[in-house]
Automatic annotation (TrEMBL):
This is MmgE/PrpD family protein. GO terms for molecular function: lyase activity. Residues 7-244 form the MmgE/PrpD N-terminal domain. InterPro entries: MmgE/PrpD_sf (IPR036148), MmgE/PrpD_sf_1 (IPR042183), MmgE/PrpD_sf_2 (IPR042188), MmgE_PrpD (IPR005656), MmgE_PrpD_C (IPR045337), MmgE_PrpD_N (IPR045336). Residues 266-440 form the MmgE/PrpD C-terminal domain. It comes from Salinigranum rubrum.
């Protein structure tokens, strides 16, 4: 009996490294380097340390290395810890899907762990990364999940199982079982990213991928799962999203969705990048000092206004997780400091009275015209930022911020971001080694040299 899971398994099976052109390989290497940098940058973060303390003594026969250390743990545990490090700073990539934003590089570090455990090559890893991007991004393009209260990571069971299964060499039937096991057991809720945001924001997708790795292990061992996890009674389409799904498309050339991913220039929620870009451009162009500002107003589309400009986002005692999903905090600290990196979310900076003074001048409104524009141009992040100084209004509209696929960061900016994230944790020689290995990903016989170069 054929099902959507069978169709998806056939789609995954058809994706081949041999079909990738230079642009796909280049962005895959760039995203690997960027995600590794985000992981090292979060090595000392509270959840990363907590997970290493809890799971560092766990051992397994199919182990993988905890990034930043020489400690091996079960592969699914390594995937959880390494994925959490990549995601925690909210500095990893973003894809603007029709159904909302997602961070497909959430998969990269767990896939690196699986590649190590399976003895896979760099070509194999590149292939799996592209699969993960295709499944999650195409899924969210076809079927939004937030309307029914689910998080974007609700597509993670399927994208993760697809990519992990690709690396593990699962048959199509085993992939179908893995989709059923992972999908029936993981449907994360959108509350993760609403209101006062907790640490779980950075763990939600890594935990789903952890579970998908186990689903693939079970499928390989002969455990079966529901074959109609999408269209069956009480399946994905009945509970999560009732949109039609089609996995028959085979991307070629410039159709791969990984090419439409934005690499973050700022360490904030991606919807904030447009008003932040606009504010910093106005401040620079008109030489505006923070104390001279009378008012700042941000017009933005509905989803962003509802998620990133609720009353608690003006609080003076925010957690870093709430602050990096706050338009007023991120715009204010950007104007005061001239940058928004992980440093701007350290506890002392979050309490800065100079930042709070600017926050008090910020208002945010949903603009129906921008909401409509976003609906017609789902890859864009439309916003209009207006700064008032002595009665004069300076206005900037931004649809594609720096780092967006239409406005990509330069190689120098990407390298600078990586070096800044690794500063004080990796030696210069290690950074050079990691950069070279990432660029040469397709030529790696194993991924071990990359992990060896990341020991802090």
């Amino acid at each position: 009996m054929s099902s959507l899971s069978h169709e998806l398994a056939a789609h995954v099976d058809r994706v081949s490294f041999d079909d990738f052109d230079e642009a796909v390989l280049d962005i895959t290497s760039d995203l690997l380097l960027d995600t590794v940098g985000c992981s090292i940058g979060a090595f000392t973060s509270p959840p990363s340390k907590a997970l290493r303390a809890e799971y560092g003594d766990h051992r397994g026969t199919a182990g993988a290395t905890v990034v930043g250390t020489d400690v091996d743990v079960p592969v699914e545990t390594a995937g959880l810890i390494n994925g959490t490090m990549a995601r925690y700073l909210d500095y990893n990539d973003c894809y603007m899907a029709t159904g909302g934003a997602c961070h497909p590089s959430d998969h990269i570090m767990p896939l690196l762990s699986v590649a190590q455990s399976e003895g896979a090559t760099g070509r194999d890893l590149a292939e799996a990364i592209v699969v993960a991007y295709e499944v999650e991004c195409s899924g969210l393009d076809q079927a939004t999940v937030r309307e029914r209260g689910f998080d974007y990571a609700a597509w993670g069971p399927y994208s993760s199982a697809a990519a992990v299964g690709k690396l593990m060499g699962l048959s199509r039937d085993e992939l179908v079982d893995a989709f059923g096991i992972a999908g029936a057991s993981n449907a994360p809720l959108y509350i993760t990213r609403r209101g006062d945001v907790s640490m779980w924001k950075g763990l939600a997708h890594p935990y789903v991928t952890h579970n998908a790795i186990q689903a693939c292990q079970m499928a390989r061992a002969g455990i079966t799962g529901p074959t109609e996890v999408f269209e069956g009674d009480y399946g994905f389409q009945a509970v999560v999203s009732d949109n039609d799904l089609d996995f028959s498309e085979r991307p070629t050339g410039d159709e791969y969705r990984i090419l439409e991913t934005g690499i973050k220039y700022f360490a904030t929620g991606y919807y904030i990048h447009s008003p932040l870009t606009g504010a910093l451009e106005l401040v620079d162009e008109h030489d505006i000092a923070p104390d001279d500002i009378d008012a700042i107003h941000v017009d933005i589309f509905e989803t962003a206004a509802k998620a990133l400009a609720t009353p608690e986002k003006w609080g003076t005692d925010q957690t870093r997780e709430t602050a990096d999903h706050s338009i007023p905090y991120s715009v204010a600290v950007g104007i005061v400091d001239g940058e928004v990196t992980p440093r701007q979310f350290e506890p002392d900076r979050l309490r800065g009275p100079d930042v709070h003074a600017v926050m008090e001048k910020i208002t945010v409104s949903e603009d129906p015209d921008l909401t409509e524009y976003r609906r017609d141009h789902p890859r864009h992040i439309p916003s209009v930022t207006t700064i008032t100084v002595d009665g004069t209004e300076y206005r900037s509209r931004v649809d594609a911020p720096l780092g967006h696929a239409e406005r990509p960061m330069s190689d120098e900016q990407l390298d600078g971001k990586f070096r800044a994230l690794c500063d004080g944790l990796l030696a210069d020689e290690q950074m050079e080694r990691v950069m070279a290995l990432s660029a040469d990903l397709p030529d790696l016989d194993t991924v071990d040299p990359l992990l060896d170069a990341l020991v802090v």
